[in-house]
Amino acid sequence: MSENLDMSNLPFLCVAQIIFELSDSSADLHSCLLVNRMWCKCAVAYLWRTPFYWNGHRAVKMVIEFLRLLPNDCLEDLEYVIGIHIPAQNMQPMFNYLSFVRTMNIMCCIEAVECFLADYFDIVNDTDIRLLSLRICRGMVKNCPLLMEIDMAGHDIGYYGYKWTARSWNLFNLKDSVTNINQLKQLRFSQEFPPDILYSAAEKLSNLELFEIAWSENCMYIDGIKWCDAISKLIGNQKSLKVAYLNLNFSFFGTNLKSICKALYTQAKTLIKVKILFAGTEISKLIDTFGQLAKLHYIKLVYCTLSPTCPLELPPDAFSNLRVLKINEIETNFYGIDALLGNVKECLETLCICYIEMNADYNAELWRKCAKNAPNLSYLKIQLDLEDYVQFIQMALPLWQNLRKLCIVINEPHNNKDSHELLSNILSLAGTNLPASVKFLKLDAYCKLPLAAFTTFLSTCSASLESFSLRVDDLNDSLVNTLLDYMGNSLQSVYLKGTGALSAETKAKLNTQIPRVDYFMKSVNSD
């Protein structure tokens, strides 16, 4: 904090901007409370934006203050049931603190309540934690007039023995609420709660811009039909949904997924981001739906299975606005992957392909088609089996002449001579075919990197790199010195991560030649 006395007289917007820059630090925000009323009001707005966000003793103080602000009817009988002292209601607070609240995060609330109750009991009763958290969150939804986001994900509310608490967490049918629940812009939900609660949300909410639902391994409410109906109803009822994150186990849904696809299609004019996790073979229906969403610019698929029996016929302008495509750990035949990679367009800027099974006979044609259709790609992350890298490097990599950032991830090769020769060949091809436009290169090798192969890569590299990141098993002086010998005069930053050790001499050489150096080393003998 500056000691300049004139700082306290800055216009309100300037003060707000300064405090925004300090908003990641609880200590800095609390320091701002002491400057004057203007600074205090700005800082309070951030401190109360997401109550209980700060951990430790600050969370305990927040719980106490929050309890003092809630009406008595929210807290009735708690002293008797839990056996704690409920502080007297604050009838004249300095600010209308509840009007600053924008986000209700269940996980933050539960963690803060646990700290609060720890001051009363040596062993905190889990039922008491859930009951007090429930009362606080219900009070927050009823009494915070400008609440914009409800986050119900990230914490196990509904495991065996606490089903009553899970069914009590319906925050969307509260009576006598000062909050217009339909003003919510973001809802993060979890399958730890029953689908009935999501039905209630669907009936009350129509202005969401972001909807996220997370799968839980502890889920007690596995009913594919009910979940599909609830999800599709909520999505379909929104006026301008922009982001949909569906983190689900679609194996429970089967053909019921069609209703979700139909609901997504109703959002064709506004939906811009979609993330799907854990989808089975029915994902092909979603891909077909994606092709109908005119404004879609972000797709992420993780742990899905793309295996349609015939090629998907997407409209000519499918993915015409797609800027980001991320595909991680996908099982597929070439029909499924072609529906995604084969239909990208010129506006694609980011492509991440990790752990996918591809048809070797089709690789060359697919990579060539992808590179030709998306010439303006600026960031690429690629992780393939060693056998698939050769065609990718030869057919696609040289065509991306606007590429700025490249991340190559190499899995551990089979422990035989042929695999190590193939690795050396891949690195040599990568160096030779690396576009000159690449300025940031990240090489993640989950194996011991042969010095000869690394040397070949650096010696053939045609790009004028500014930043180099190396993650490798057995990181040693020889690898680092080789990097410095070939690129030490041009690199502006280097990041090193691996198992092993660097000598003091090598570290000194690094710090002398490279303006910015970061490294994370793990000792060979460490646990």
TrEMBL record:
<protein>
    <submittedName>
        <fullName>25_t:CDS:1</fullName>
    </submittedName>
</protein>
<dbReference type="InterPro" id="IPR032675">
    <property type="entry name" value="LRR_dom_sf"/>
</dbReference>
